[in-house]
Amino acid sequence: MTTKSGKYWVTWANTHAKNSNKVSDLELSFRGDFNSFKTALTDAGAKVIITTTKRSDKRAYLFHWSWKISQGKCTPSDAKAMVGVDIQWDHNDLVKSKAAALEMVKGFGLAIPPRSFNPPSLSSNHITGKAIDMAIKWTGVIDVNKKDGTPVSLTFVSNVNTHTALHEVGESYGVKKLKTDIPHWSFNGH
Amino acid sequence: MGIKMRKYSLFYLLFGPIVFLSCAQKQEDLSAFEANDYSRRVGWVDGDCLAIQNAKLSAGSEITVVVLDELQYRIVAKVLGEATDGETCFPLLGDRRSVNVGSGYSFYQIKSDKKINFAIAVTEGSLASENYSFDYCSTLEGISFSVKKANQNTDEEIWNGYYYLGYDAEATCDIESNE
Question: N- or C-end of chain A: fewer Cβ atoms within 10 A?
Fold first, then answer.
């Protein structure tokens, strides 16, 4: 049975379409690469704090279409259906459809920067399990082995985006840093 | 007169370098202090929530808010107190809380006469002059805010703030930063 778009779906998503922070939810190949990198870091004395691994495609679907409909970037009937998310975007009244979508945007806390034309993505490395968001902490200097066994001395800096030596170690394991987003690492750096 | 001048000349000859070095040291310290202090004086805003790397803002204090709409404008807002949950402060929503808190920010509820979407806030008015430019762009998972000091030939970034949104979107920030 379909349920009309609106606040209900925020509650639904927070129960049925949550993101994961479990390494076991990562895609098999990337999981192996990440585990090797993590082992090298922790063996050297670093602490790895994981915040997100695999993101829910259903959650992304709700984010994407509620954003687009609420901002008038598409009509409610443009929204594609998704198996497992029995939502009715079109209330047969454009004003009501947009208002219901906006309820969801606000409930999810989605950003609507004034110059943005980009909705939340339907697909990403997180959705395919090939990205991880994490913080890596240590004190002072540690020696971390690259995949080929070469030790690299790493001094802790607060801005991980600028730590190219750490990025190189990660890359040797196939875990690449995206330099614009503090916690983000993935199989291809995006 | 000539003697007096000679006396002063001798004084400056003997003690001038010490006075000069002392002033230079003080100037250097001040510059370092100011450079490091931006993170405590500048923060970003989502709605009625201010994120700033300063845990000591007191309720009732006034801040200058540069609202980043199509046309930027400045308003004064008041700090109401610490923000503790995602209901009133989106950066503390479940998907994004740990990263934003982990980045060292403190979160405050603020109140203003105008509705704020995204903004950069300054706790001291001195930075909010025409000599600085305020901007933002979207990253893959968040928003990057920046303040630049307008120099003759180039803009020098003096502050950058990162707001982790916890979902993916197409970035508008310069992609060269990852190449």
Answer: N
Among A residues 123-142, those touching chain B with beta carbons less than 8 Å apart: 124-127, 133, 135
Question: Position A22: which residue type?
Answer: K
As a whole number of Å, the end-to-end CA separation of chain A is: 38
Contacts with A121 (C-beta within 8 Å, 6 or more apart), sequence order: A60, A64, B167, B168, B169, B170
Nearest CB to B99 within list A19, A63, A182: A182
Residue range A19-42, pLDDT digits in tens: 999 999 999 999 999 999 999 999
pLDDT of residue B3: 37
Count of other CB atoms within 10 angstroms of residue B125: 12
pTM, entire model: 0.87
In a mutational test of the B interface, the residue from A20, A136, A181, A188 whose CB has the highest number of chain B CBs within 10 Å is A181
Contact criterion met (CB < 8 Å) for A178 and B140: yes
8 Å CB contact between B99 and B166? yes
What strands lie across the sheet with B142-150, from one edge to the other?
Answer: B132-138, B142-150, B155-164
Q: Measure CB to CB from residue B168 to each of A14, A108, A121 and give the nearest one.
A: A121
Mean pLDDT over residues B42-53, rounded? 97
DSSP one-letter string for B54-86: -TTPPTT-EEEEEE-SSS-EEEEEEEEEE--ST
* Cβ–Cβ gap B117/A112 under 8 Å: yes
d(CA B126, CA B114): 22
Query: Which residue in this structure is represented by tokens 């993935």?
Result: A186
Q: Are strands B42-46 and B118-122 parallel, antiparallel or unpaired?
A: antiparallel
Scanning every residue of chain A, which has its alpha carbon at the shortest distance from the alpha carbon of B104?
A158
Share of chain A above pLDDT 70, in %: 99
Which of B93, B141, B159 has the highest number of chain A CBs within 10 A, making it the mutation to test binding with A?
B141
Phi, psi (5° rounding) for residue A87?
A: -105, 145
Q: What's the one-letter identity of residue A28?
A: L
Number of H helices, E strands in chain A: 5, 8
- The complex scores an ipTM of 0.95
